[in-house]
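agent> Task received from the user: take the single chain below, predict its 3D structure, and emit structure tokens. No templates, no multimer pairing.
agent> Plan: (1) validate residues, (2) run structure prediction, (3) serialize to tokens, (4) report one or two observations.
agent> Step 1 OK, no nonstandard residues flagged.
tool_call: predict_structure(input=
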Amino acid sequence: MKRIDGTEKWYRLNRALFLGIVLLLASITVFAAEPPAIPDGWSDQFAYVNGVRIHYYHAVPAPDKPVIVMVHGVTDNGLCWTDVSLKLQDSYDIYMLDARGHGLSDPFLPSDNGESLIKDVVDFIKVMGFEKPVIMGHSMGAATVMRVGAEYPDLASAVIMLDPGLPGKSTGDRPAPQSRSNVPPQPPQAVSDPLAFSMMGEPETLVKQNNYGFDDLVEKGHKENPKWSDTDVKYWALSKKQYHGPYTDATWQAIRGTMRTEDSLAKIEVKSLILKADTSPEGRKDNEEFVADLERVKLVHVDGAAHNLHHDDLPRTINEIKTFLADAL
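)
tool_result: status=success, residues=329
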């Protein structure tokens, strides 16, 4: 029998150790590159509404509880509501939509206009047979549910809006989106962001964004949003890879038109909650003056939170929502 000397034993042991480390790192890399699955007990399906397939997520079913329909902001998807829904699902039956042109829903159509996203939500509620659900939206979704509440007064039992744009004297709120064709050219930069993301642009630009690496987007999300949970960041990253975007000026109007809320807030006949991002004293005053005569509207500024306030301060967001719904329903 051949004897194995100490040198050969050392070599074999270290080779085995090296191969083991390589395989471990490879498995970690593969695992890390995978977007997260939906939470346990959740499901996802499609509904055909307003001429397109709308994809949605359903939290743990609660058929005897009030229904909440959630509508996300531009470039996000329904899973960007995950942390919020996990905190509310014991008390509510929650549905999170992928808006048209987002997530796994159908893309925008050439015939779309400023009514399309509004009618998507209205038809979804009707197709699903919901009776007076709570409707909740963030950003573009906040504008959407604001208009649904105003234009379809008998549809919802309450309206919750996270950082919608409100008219005011100061410029603290975001300006109305521009036309794709009117976006000024950007000056060359010494160091450009390889993961720059835009809600509008040429088709080649929007598709390029879908091809960003998932891990790269997660790293970017953590770096730029240190207050967010790991769950928030990962679903945010997934939403960017799924975003269709408006490929033409005509389809861009579906987003732009949706956010023309004008006097919608004053027309809502049910109790409504507005959670606004932190802003300057002047901005707060403008917001407070705007809702001062609206008895059914409760306005809360979330201290220290930016536009994605449900990610920046989840406990405060959940507390305000629960307190409001306990009174509104």
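agent> Step 4: summary for the user.
The beta strands are 43-49, 52-58, 67-71, 93-97, 134-138, 158-162, 272-277, 297-302.
agent> Done.
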